[in-house]
Amino acid sequence: MKAPFELAERVLKRFIDHGYEAYIVGGAVRNWLLGLSIHDIDIATSAKPEEVIALFPSTFPVGIEHGTVLVRHDHVDYEVTTFRTEGTYSDFRHPQHVTFIGSLEEDLARRDFTMNAMARDISGVIIDPFHGRQHLKKRLLRTVGQAEARFLEDPLRMLRAARFVSQLNVKADSEVIEAMQKQKCYIQRLSIERVLQEMSKLLQGHWVLYGLELLMATNVLFELPMLSNVTPQERQHLLSVDFNRCASLAERWATFLLALERAAPAAFLKKWRFSNALKNQILLLMQNYHCYKEAEWTAWNLYRVGLHQALAIQRLRAARHEAVESVMEHLQAMAQALPIQTRADLVIDGHDLQAWLDQPPGPWIKGTLANIEQAVVEKQLPNERAAIKRWVKACHEQKKKP
Ligand code: ATP
Ligand code: MG
């Protein structure tokens, strides 16, 4: 189990060789103990930011005011943060001031949960002053220090609690639950960007419903922007959907909003400051879900919406227990059997129509092309020039009849 840290240990060694302390900390240690994959490695060190920069040829001052420098070593990025304590969070966003300190223990004490407050030294020894390992074994989520005080200090930790429940299937300790109930109103002071980031991570966890359950049981969810008026029926819906049927973050958010039956999802997405790209994906999914809700998948529907969206709609249905798996395979086969995939695949174009009917250009071309397209997709007409010409001429004659 050494492999994931092998490269990081070379970074630690450079610090140590220069007389500094350095440890792997936070999520990487936690996930390693849980046997989960490790996506990024954070390092805590006694070296000051400018000393970190001097020590490595490739660094980026990503959060230097908080003591964080990104170090690129052997093509891998590490977030390296100088041991620090934090002052009060005057704006509930950033600590008012950070103080660089000399000890790892103090640095670990500022961290949110005991399972996130462990460090691993270069020889693999785990430093665990708050018994995170023991809590992990019991799958118990506990704060470092008094939960109420830690949530007041940074209310985001309440959302992080639910996010870890969702990602790791840990159980929030009773002190955490009570503190969430008590401090929930401070959620309103958080910046929406931080809220969105944690809620997106929560929705991507494998145990989303446990995370949402915690947020509902403590009423924290209803302190979030535009969620104060969630009805009991909507709560029920939220807890009955299967988010694991979704294949993307956009599908997970669409499923969340569909369960809430929001009349104006665009207003929610704007208020929550979703990126334009994600917002548009979610809106398109929701629109298509409603549009094809009652419809059977015909060749024409499938062609119009495209296989990619059709499968996504099917997954939204599956998340809501409205669909069966076999339809997915059926859709794949249907898409392969479509005579054309786009209008560009038609063997004729507007110039042909003009020449055949000897008509000046006009809106009729677009309408006629659309009719041809549908007839070809529905296999009423082969995608062949002679056949299409006959068909167009016959339609034209028909129209001329009184
Ligand atoms: P992930 O696997 O999602 O990266 P993580 O535990 O690494 O999980 P990060 O948000 O990357 O989470 O934070 C890194 C570490 O910084 C955490 O493990 C925790 O020790 C500390 N931390 C992050 N946010 C807070 C916070 N709001 N309050 C206290 N400590 C925090
Ligand atoms: Mg992390």
TrEMBL record:
<feature type="binding site">
    <location>
        <position position="30"/>
    </location>
    <ligand>
        <name>CTP</name>
    </ligand>
</feature>
<dbReference type="InterPro" id="IPR043519">
    <property type="entry name" value="NT_sf"/>
</dbReference>
<keyword id="KW-0694">RNA-binding</keyword>
<dbReference type="InterPro" id="IPR032828">
    <property type="entry name" value="PolyA_RNA-bd"/>
</dbReference>
<keyword id="KW-0547">Nucleotide-binding</keyword>
<feature type="binding site">
    <location>
        <position position="157"/>
    </location>
    <ligand>
        <name>CTP</name>
    </ligand>
</feature>
<dbReference type="Pfam" id="PF12627">
    <property type="entry name" value="PolyA_pol_RNAbd"/>
</dbReference>
<dbReference type="InterPro" id="IPR023068">
    <property type="entry name" value="CCA-adding_enz_firmicutes"/>
</dbReference>
<comment type="function">
    <text>Catalyzes the addition and repair of the essential 3'-terminal CCA sequence in tRNAs without using a nucleic acid template. Adds these three nucleotides in the order of C, C, and A to the tRNA nucleotide-73, using CTP and ATP as substrates and producing inorganic pyrophosphate. tRNA 3'-terminal CCA addition is required both for tRNA processing and repair. Also involved in tRNA surveillance by mediating tandem CCA addition to generate a CCACCA at the 3' terminus of unstable tRNAs. While stable tRNAs receive only 3'-terminal CCA, unstable tRNAs are marked with CCACCA and rapidly degraded.</text>
</comment>
<feature type="binding site">
    <location>
        <position position="111"/>
    </location>
    <ligand>
        <name>ATP</name>
    </ligand>
</feature>
<dbReference type="Pfam" id="PF01743">
    <property type="entry name" value="PolyA_pol"/>
</dbReference>
<dbReference type="GO" id="GO:0000049">
    <property type="term" value="F:tRNA binding"/>
</dbReference>
<dbReference type="InterPro" id="IPR032810">
    <property type="entry name" value="CCA-adding_enz_C"/>
</dbReference>
<protein>
    <recommendedName>
        <fullName>CCA-adding enzyme</fullName>
        <ecNumber>2.7.7.72</ecNumber>
    </recommendedName>
</protein>
<feature type="domain" description="tRNA nucleotidyltransferase/poly(A) polymerase RNA and SrmB- binding">
    <location>
        <begin position="173"/>
        <end position="227"/>
    </location>
</feature>
<feature type="domain" description="CCA-adding enzyme C-terminal">
    <location>
        <begin position="250"/>
        <end position="392"/>
    </location>
</feature>
<feature type="binding site">
    <location>
        <position position="40"/>
    </location>
    <ligand>
        <name>Mg(2+)</name>
    </ligand>
</feature>
<feature type="binding site">
    <location>
        <position position="30"/>
    </location>
    <ligand>
        <name>ATP</name>
    </ligand>
</feature>
<feature type="binding site">
    <location>
        <position position="154"/>
    </location>
    <ligand>
        <name>CTP</name>
    </ligand>
</feature>
<dbReference type="GO" id="GO:0001680">
    <property type="term" value="P:tRNA 3'-terminal CCA addition"/>
</dbReference>
<feature type="binding site">
    <location>
        <position position="27"/>
    </location>
    <ligand>
        <name>CTP</name>
    </ligand>
</feature>
<feature type="binding site">
    <location>
        <position position="157"/>
    </location>
    <ligand>
        <name>ATP</name>
    </ligand>
</feature>
<feature type="binding site">
    <location>
        <position position="160"/>
    </location>
    <ligand>
        <name>CTP</name>
    </ligand>
</feature>
<feature type="binding site">
    <location>
        <position position="163"/>
    </location>
    <ligand>
        <name>ATP</name>
    </ligand>
</feature>
<feature type="binding site">
    <location>
        <position position="160"/>
    </location>
    <ligand>
        <name>ATP</name>
    </ligand>
</feature>
<keyword id="KW-0479">Metal-binding</keyword>
<keyword id="KW-0808">Transferase</keyword>
<feature type="binding site">
    <location>
        <position position="154"/>
    </location>
    <ligand>
        <name>ATP</name>
    </ligand>
</feature>
<keyword id="KW-0692">RNA repair</keyword>
<keyword id="KW-0067">ATP-binding</keyword>
<comment type="subunit">
    <text>Homodimer.</text>
</comment>
<dbReference type="InterPro" id="IPR050264">
    <property type="entry name" value="Bact_CCA-adding_enz_type3_sf"/>
</dbReference>
<dbReference type="GO" id="GO:0005524">
    <property type="term" value="F:ATP binding"/>
</dbReference>
<feature type="domain" description="Poly A polymerase head">
    <location>
        <begin position="22"/>
        <end position="142"/>
    </location>
</feature>
<keyword id="KW-0548">Nucleotidyltransferase</keyword>
<dbReference type="Pfam" id="PF13735">
    <property type="entry name" value="tRNA_NucTran2_2"/>
</dbReference>
<dbReference type="GO" id="GO:0042245">
    <property type="term" value="P:RNA repair"/>
</dbReference>
<feature type="binding site">
    <location>
        <position position="163"/>
    </location>
    <ligand>
        <name>CTP</name>
    </ligand>
</feature>
<dbReference type="GO" id="GO:0000287">
    <property type="term" value="F:magnesium ion binding"/>
</dbReference>
<feature type="binding site">
    <location>
        <position position="111"/>
    </location>
    <ligand>
        <name>CTP</name>
    </ligand>
</feature>
<feature type="binding site">
    <location>
        <position position="42"/>
    </location>
    <ligand>
        <name>Mg(2+)</name>
    </ligand>
</feature>
<dbReference type="GO" id="GO:0004810">
    <property type="term" value="F:CCA tRNA nucleotidyltransferase activity"/>
</dbReference>
